[in-house]
Amino acid sequence: MPVTHHAVVIAGAGPTGLMLAAELKLAGIDVAIVERRTGRELVGTRARGLNARSIELLDQRGMAGRFLAAGYTAQVHGFAHTRLDISDFPTRHPYGLALVQNHIERLLLEWCEDLGVAILRGVELTAFTQAETGIDISLADGTMLRTGYLVGCDGGRSTVRKLAGIGFPGSNPTISNLLGEVEFTAQPPFGMRQSPRLHGINRTPEGQIQVIVTEREVSLDREPSLADLSAELTDLYGSDFGVHSPTWLFRFNDASRQAERYRAGRVLLAGDAAHIHYPAGGQGLNLGLQDAVNLGWKLAQVVRGQSPDTLLDTYHAERHPVAARVLRNTMANVALARQDDRSQAAAAVVAELLATDAGRKLMAGQMSGLDIHYDLGPGHPLLGRRMPDLDLLVAGRPTSVFALLHDARPLLLNFGPAPAAARAWTGRVRVAEAETPGPWELPVIGPVPAPTAVLIRPDGHVAWVGEAATVGFEEALSTWFGAPEETKPANRQTEDDP
After folding, report:
1. Cα–Cα–Cα angle for 135, 141, 146, nearest 5°?
2. What is the pLDDT of residue 412?
3. What pTM was estimated for this model as a whole?
4. Measuring CA to CA, which residue among 330, 322, 335 is closest to residue 375?
5. Beta strands in 17-141 (DSSP E)
6. Where do the H-state alpha helices sit in 48-136?
7. How many whole angstroms from its chain centre is CA 354?
8. 3-state class of 477 per DSSP?
9. Residue 206 in contact with residue 267, Cβ under 8 Å?
10. Cis geometry, peptide bond prior to residue 439 (ω within 30 degrees of 0)
11. pLDDT category of residue 423 using cuts at 50, 70 and 90
């Protein structure tokens, strides 16, 4: 049987895999997704929205409008049953987006199709062999693929992670929940309740009825059934109200696990394959999208031979701590939701702290993803943080920072004379001479000093900040965007198209 070659193969066409594929395709990389589902069927509505940082990432690619038009914006961020208002945060998107996973996945799929991403459906990865020069992949239908890199975006039970021998340590579940979309013969009582355990029946904006119950006993790998749901409803309400015809039904729990490493040679992990946790705060899907945007441009540069493969090590170094923090706050959320006296006392103390402006901003920064900071060493407060989407004037024309990131290329913004060293990276880094009224302000931190230049990675995080000098500039360029090219003629034109 002939072997099909792709530069990168992604296992899993969920939101993380689709986002990663789009990022790679924008960078001109030959990428294919292997997906066990046979068609576009979407099962369940597990995730229910996007946080502010994920909306920003889509805005960086010119895609936010599609998603905003499909849902509705609201103050959706919260912690420990406390709503966290971010309407005063310095971002164009000081809100979350209420949009169920079905629609998020559909829009990402449409984007991938627009870009020409190859999606192999109805096939499942069963084995792979990793060598120094590439990976041979076996699919369940006998198909063979050859690739330079394999990325497991195949969920919490990731086959890729298991075959790669990557450990998945963490804690076992203490609670499990049933969630489903169903019909009832009798009229059920709508609304959420906390006692004696979390349960509720609600109608979605589309008119479907969804039900959630915390089970009396923790269930692990057994597939949920309608009989399970009926028994739990009867115990809680005294009746199951004639529950029938489930469109979908699944079980989730509060197990918290994280891959020991996000990379094993030519194999990488992203999304739930790298971390699982309780869905408190709706952080899981967003975490996966942000993994994809961090990894995509790095993997593209390595595939092109532009950067050494050691650049991929920064993916684990940057994203592992972010997920570890999410695991911590979701475990805290579960603990604070318990109904015993001690947990309720702790929840009351936390609520008082969140009622303060400092407490609100601290936790809102975490839950919205707007405070993410990659440790790139000491320096200006912008270093390692998301670049604000400032209004700009470039060549006399109005634009914005995010508009200049639509093609997923590195960006050097100069607010004064351009550093001469930038010429050696002209073919890789867009250079724009810009003016901005500011303000230079970061969520949680507040106002920061205005720099003279900013080097921005394709994921929107700041790699270098100029402060009246170019100290560390060439080092930053080499670290993130490879060795310098042959110096271009001095009369070259800088890119200043908005």
Report:
1. 20
2. 94
3. 0.93
4. 322
5. 31-35, 49-50, 72-74, 78-79, 82-83, 96-98, 118-121, 125-130, 135-139
6. 52-60, 64-70, 101-115
7. 25
8. helix
9. no
10. yes
11. confident
Closest by CA to 373, choosing from 462, 260, 487, 436, is 462
Paired tokens of 246: 């489930």
Phi and psi dihedrals of 50, rounded to 5? Answer: -115, 140
Mean pLDDT score, 262-267: 98
Q: What is the DSSP letter of 197?
A: S
Is there a contact between 287 and 321 (Cβ–Cβ < 8 Å)? no
Q: Which residues pair with 11 in a beta bridge?
A: 34, 152
Q: Rounded distance, CA 483 to CA 94, Å?
A: 38
Angle between helices 52-60 and 284-303 (to 10 degrees): 30
Give yes or no for residue 21 having a pLDDT over 80.
yes
Q: Which DSSP category does 405 fall into?
A: G
Phi/psi for 45 (5° steps) reads: -135, 60
Q: Which residues contact 420 (CB under 8 A, 6 or more apart)?
A: none
Give the separation between CA 380 and CA 452, rounded to whole angstroms.
12
The SS3 assignment for 89 reads: coil
- 283 and 48 Cβ atoms separated by less than 8 Å: no
Antiparallel, parallel or unpaired: β 441-442 and 78-79:
unpaired
Q: What average pLDDT score do residues 142-169 get?
A: 97
CB neighbours (10 Å) of residue 449? Answer: 10
Q: What is the mean pLDDT of residues 255-268?
A: 97
> What is the pLDDT confidence band of residue 446, given thresholds at 50, 70 and 90?
very high
Rounded CA gap, 269 and 285, in Å? 14
pLDDT at 183: 95
Given a cut of 60, whether residue 487 has pLDDT beyond it is no
User: Other C-beta atoms within 10 Å of 273: how many?
Assistant: 32
Of residues 429, 355, 435, the one with CA closest to residue 391: 435
- Segment 357-361 shows an average pLDDT of 96
191: its two tokens = 């609304």
Q: How far, in Å, are 127, 155, 159, 219, 438 from residue 150 at the CA level?
A: 12, 14, 12, 32, 41
Q: What is the spatial distance between Cα 430 and Cα 120, in angstroms, rounded to a whole number?
A: 34
Please provide the average confidence, as pLDDT, over all residues in the chain.
92
N- to C-terminal Cα separation, the chain: 48
Crossing angle of helices 15-26/101-115, nearest 10°?
20
Residue 118 has pLDDT above 80, yes or no: yes
Helix (H) or strand (E) holding 316: helix 313-337
**Predicted confidence band of residue 42 (pLDDT cuts 50, 70, 90):** low
Contact 340, 331 (CB under 8 A): no
Query: What are the structure tokens assigned to 25, written together?
Result: 């395709």
Determine the pLDDT at residue 46: 64
**Among 289, 251, 293, residue whose Cα is nearest residue 272:** 289
Q: Which amino acid is at 144?
A: M
Phi/psi of residue 250, nearest 5 degrees: -145, 170
